[in-house]
Each structure stands twice: as C-alpha cells, then as structure tokens.
Task: inverse folding
C-alpha cells in the first residue's frame, strides 16, 4: 500500500463543511473522494486533518489516504484539479511515509479569523470576513487572549457534546489590526467543535466592552458554555495550516 | 447649487458596467442615482470619471453631482451605503469646489490588472483575476511596455469607433510578479474603450512569445486594431484611482 498526502484550499461558502455526511453530497471530502476514486480506479477514503464547519474556508487543509497502486503524484494533482470545481484546489500532492495520517499525525493547527470593522463591509472581502461595524478595544482583547493561552479545559468554548477530552493547548493568539480589518490568529495542538468561532466571538465581546478581559479567566474555569460569547460566523474563519512537526 | 464628490468601490461581476443604459437597470451609475435621488429628495444625475465595462471592478471610481440642497456629507454617505447593495460601497463623500466635475476635472487614472498564472486558479481570487496558466517571460513584457509609454495614437489598442482623438499619454506601466500572480499597473491621462484590456492582452502575448517585444512599436504605428492582442477579460481589471492633481 502507498500513502499519499494532499494540501487543499477551498472556499467553503457553498459547502456543508469538510466531513462526509448522510443526506448531502455537498461536502468537500465527498467531492474529492469521488474524483480521486475515479482517477485511482478504486474506492478511496480520505482522512482530513479535522472537520471544518459548513461555510468555513481553508488555505491549507491536509488529507491523507492509502491506495494499492503507486500514483504519479504531479499528474494526479493536475488531473484532480481539472475535475474538481473552481472552489476546491489541491495545492500539493506527495507520497507520505507509511503510517502517516493527516489527523492522527498532526501536532498542531493554525486558524485565522477575519473581521471587517468598517461601517459597510469591503466589497471584495465580504464573502470571507465577518462584518462587525463596532468600535473595538484591541488592547483589551489582547489582555483577554493571555488568559486563554496554555493548557486548559475548554468546555466553555465548545458546542460539542459527549466529548471525553476537552483539554487543549493554545500556544499563541495574535490579534492584529490593519486599518479597519482585524485578524485573529490561533495556534494550538487542536481545537474543539466551534472552539475558534466561540473564542473569536468572546474576544469580540471583550473588544466592545461587553465582557471584561479578566472575566475570560472565570469563563474558562466555569466550564459553562453559556458564560462565553457567541460563535462568530463561519465565513470569517480559515484553516490556515496543519503542523506535523513542532513549529520552530 | 452645491457640488459633491464621491469615491466608490464596486465588485462589477453582476453589473452591466458603470454607465447608464437603456434596456437595463443593472448599471452602477443607475443604482447609485436612484438611491441618491431618494435621499436628496430630488432627481440627481451623477457623472463618473469614466465608464467601466461590464464586469470591471473599482477600488476607487470617482463621481460628482450638483444639487440644490446642502447635504450632511457623512450622514448621506452612511445612509447611501445602507441602501446600496453589498457589492457597491461609497468610500468617501465630500463637498467639492464649484465647477468640479469627476470626468472633466480628472488629470489621470490608474488601472490594475490581475493575472493568475497557476495551473488552477486560486479559489479566493478567481472572481477577480484572469486565469492564464502559461509560462510568462516578464522581462520581455517589460521591454514591450517601454514602447507603449509616452504620447501615442492608441488606435491599435481600442475597440472604440468614431473617436476624434485617439492620442493618449501613458506615464507608466509597472509589471510585478508575486509568486504565480502577475499585476500590471497602468498610469495615464486617460484610456480609450477597451484600451487597458487590449494592452494587457497584447503584453500577455509578448509574455508567451507570440508577439516579439519590439513588434509592439510597429503595432502602435500601424493604427490597426487587428495587429494588437486580445482584450483580456473584464474580471481581472480594476479602476484603482482617479487623479485630480498631477501625481507627486
């Protein structure tokens, strides 16, 4: 068996997320599996590094799969790109070592969230950012973000149910303001269901003064979802990169 | 009478261009006039700095109009933005000196053209660039661009008919390559119908070796449209800025 790895970009706008589901064929995994199985002349199952929600985008999702036949990677990448719709694109397609698994082998991930603070949303990025026309205290947001860094039980920051392990490590949260655009960057070992969106929503509540920065520590300790903020909309969120070795 | 000036950004994808036309209400001018007339409680006619074709975008189109009533500029800008669709946005709205006219007072313009050279188009900029997956000789394009600079009769580079004056001045053409993206920037006193798109198409033909750089000088002198290249598609073109004073 051969193991292959793909890096994939997609505009998630018109999809029901990454993960295969019943009752729809509009998931990114399903669309790629269908075309890839056709090209490989066998039924291929791909494993993504993780799910992305309906409407969430990726600059660099990773997926792996095993197949009996050896593939000409660059030819398959190009053929696959021809078959895939305009909003899904395979950036890289390489052979991976035996045992490589896009989810299990991952050691970290980076997500970016884009917020447009202008009174009216920018016409060219309106599909790819959350329009939040409010005055924002970035220093307060950065202060709150400090409490979120480290190893914590993030039960307050997920909409996931019945999860055994809600402990995650956030290595870094960067908050940059470029004119009227806010970019939040999250580095961590992994993120729970809706976690990046709830972290963003909560930090935006801190930005507007609705939640005090130090209150974020209490929210973490409460392990109560109702204490945290709203989940920021999917369209502003991008899976930027998946790491398979510790970042330098 | 009061004179006002607006700077406007738009995503031209779903419009039939800037200019008012019979048989359609899907032009940017008509949509703005309708909402502005409503806000001003009188029939307002706006003058754009120039037409942009169907599908062409603007980072900074300029328009002016005269009206009897004095307006609260910031309030009107915000109200207008609320009424206008998501793909049209008024960036600035200011009172202008008596006699100011967005087209007649303009002394120069800057257009940008985006080309995506990757084998498959980038998923996030596919609506806003021309996908041209070819090997390109940028040095040859820059050499050809030198012949286009200066004061010339650009008859070979327009699809316009019955124009008295086909002489224009191109001050500068910049061609930048950032990874697999090509950005062509044109500065000039004004551009004829389809001129930027035909210049871009011709320069791309030079880039692929189909037209020799020095041939561009002959094309100019021939005053024969058939000698020049294809008009590059509208979706890659942006009206970036209109100048009312000489650039510094």
Result:
């Amino acid at each position: 068996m051969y193991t292959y790895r793909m890096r994939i970009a997609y505009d998630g706008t018109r999809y029901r997320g990454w993960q295969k589901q019943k009752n729809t064929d509009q998931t990114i995994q399903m669309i790629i599996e269908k075309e890839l199985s056709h090209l490989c002349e066998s039924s291929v199952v791909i494993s993504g590094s993780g799910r992305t929600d309906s409407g969430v985008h990726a600059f660099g999702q990773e997926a792996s799969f095993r197949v009996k036949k050896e593939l000409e990677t660059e030819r398959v990448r190009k053929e696959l790109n021809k078959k895939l719709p305009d909003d899904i694109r395979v950036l890289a397609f390489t052979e991976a070592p035996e045992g490589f698994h896009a989810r299990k082998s991952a050691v970290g991930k980076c997500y970016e969230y884009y917020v447009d603070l202008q009174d009216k949303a920018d016409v060219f990025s309106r599909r790819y950012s959350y329009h939040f026309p409010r005055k924002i205290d970035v220093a307060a947001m950065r202060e709150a973000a400090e409490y979120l860094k480290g190893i914590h039980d993030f039960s307050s920051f997920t909409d996931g149910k019945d999860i055994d392990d809600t402990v995650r490590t956030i290595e870094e949260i960067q908050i940059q303001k470029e004119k009227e655009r806010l970019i939040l960057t999250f580095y961590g070992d992994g993120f729970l269901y809706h976690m990046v969106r709830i972290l963003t929503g909560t930090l935006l509540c801190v930005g507007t003064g609705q939640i005090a920065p130090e209150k974020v520590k209490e929210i973490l300790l409460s392990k109560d979802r109702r204490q945290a903020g709203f989940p920021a909309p999917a369209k502003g969120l991008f899976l930027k990169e998946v790491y398979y070795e510790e970042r330098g």
Remarks:
- Chain A touches chain B through 20 residues (CB under 8 Å).
